[in-house]
Amino acid sequence: MTRQAAIPESGAQVRTAARRSGGSLGRGETLAGLLFVSPMLVGVFVLVLVPIVATLALSFADWNFVQGWNGIKWIGFDNFHKLFQDSLFIRTIRNNLLFLLAVPVYMIVSMALAVLIDRYVYLKGYFKVAYFMPYISNIVAVAVVWQVLFQPSYGPINEVLKTIGFSHPPKWLADPHYALASIMMITVWISIGFNLIIYIAGLQSIPRDLYEAADIDGANAWTKFARITFPMLSPTSFFLLVTGIISTFKVFDVIAVTTQGGPIGSTSLMVWYLYDQAFTNLKIGYASSVAAVLFLFVLLITFAQWGIQKKWVNY
Amino acid sequence: MPLTRRFDWRRGLVTAIMLALSVLFLLPFIWMLVTSFKAESDVFVYPIQWIPRHWHAIENYKEVWNGKYPFYRYYWNSIKVSVVTTLISATVSSLAAYGFSKVRFKAGKWLFMIVLATYMIPSQAILVPQFILYRNIGLFDSHLGLIILSSFSVLGTFMLRQFFMGVSQDYIESAKIDGAGHFRIFRSIGLPLVKPAVATYAILRFIWTWNDYQNPLIFLRTDKLFTLPLAMQKFTSVSGEFYSLIMAAAVSAILPLFIVFVIGQKSVIEGIALGGVKG
Fold first, then answer.
1. Which terminal residue of chain B, N or C, has fewer Cβ atoms less than 10 Å from its own Cβ?
2. Do A55 and B92 touch (CB under 8 A)?
3. ABC transmembrane type-1 domain: which residues (chain B) (predicted)?
4. Do A155 and B258 touch (CB under 8 A)?
5. What is the value of pTM for the model shown?
6. In this complex, is the C-beta atom of B28 within 8 Å of any C-beta atom belonging to chain A?
């Protein structure tokens, strides 16, 4: 502690405090509490709570932003009916589900790297910084760099592939069959840093004596990993799995900078579709119904998390 | 760990392999940096020249910083928005965190539950109403609007509340008996005790605001007001095929945060590990 509060000891103040603790203390505490939390509450109310209610309401409306308030038509569930017959939206959902595959990939890579960095190398600090670089880097700059690296005809990645024998390397971001996979590769590269740091923190909370006991029993490195490290990391893995899944539903920046949902809808993910409907097509009601579906997905995952947490995780 | 530990060659070997891997991982950054020093005609020469044959660094960076889209302006915008957002957010969050943890009032519990629940709402699900709201109250296309938008993130409240919970209630009670009001206790006991946590949150908030692309994209229109990520994209679309310039812009956009990160490295990494927070 750096500073002590000045502690006045005059009798008058003690008496005041004693009097306060009688009746008005509760009210005083409530007032103080409200004052402390009110800036945050007002912000959350105006910027989050009112908007989410508005989103849910607007998802039942047909409204083009330029028509003004009088242009709102309430159409019940029509937006949702239309949404689930909209082939591009169905494709978007499919892309989102495919995108989930990126999560286990970067989790496995991060866990392996975390174990190696935490236990088996010198220069631990350097490795943490190196793998964390993409996380702190401006995503637009990073996406632009990858776009150039992936350039189909003379980009560095394809030049290397041609040298080692692939005469027709994929066109990556420009190829409908590879574009989503390319975005996933970039996402894996960006996400390793965060996952690695959380895994290293998880590793450091595993009690040392477990390993010492295993050493006495003559366990090898693999057995120690499979029987101690991996199970003891399960709460961390579970946390990363849930945040990872939720974050796939929020992917936007990379797509906005590189492919804009193309080519032919192959990288359209939910937030991109929402953005495109709202700010390019100005279909506010329709976009809001996409937002409502997005919200529902995140809500379901969160509830599933609460349900599963107790059964699956080995504390 | 004993200081006089002998060099373990197996550990050395793993380190060497891992070093090679990390260089591979960092290649996009290395390529970006090298390319930003090159003359345009050398950018796609293959095999890749890892040391530029014709140095064009000064020309490239001069064009980025003082050309048609001068980066110094966007730097200033980014600094302004990030610093003010960080200050407001750290203040609002630490006040709320103290209120939710150290002031005993009935409403506090369920108010906190409401705030906690809003954390589940993806920011993208509320973009449209926020946009409409901003258009109607005149905050659209202004730095103030952008600042307000990310100043009330509930994340800081959670992080700091955890730390305030760790401050012994005895300190608070004894100060109260001595007649100090809550604001006084907050300022002279609470805040000094959680200062490292506030600093960590401030660094994280700064990084997130500096790198934020989505909000400026939707809430800014005027070129002059752009922050770095938007300027970077604008610059890319205007510079088209001038990849050496684009890479110089990318280096310029990444460098300041890299410096902030290297300086505040420990608290950033610890903060992220502690809060388990994702931008």
1. N
2. no
3. 75-264
4. no
5. 0.87
6. yes
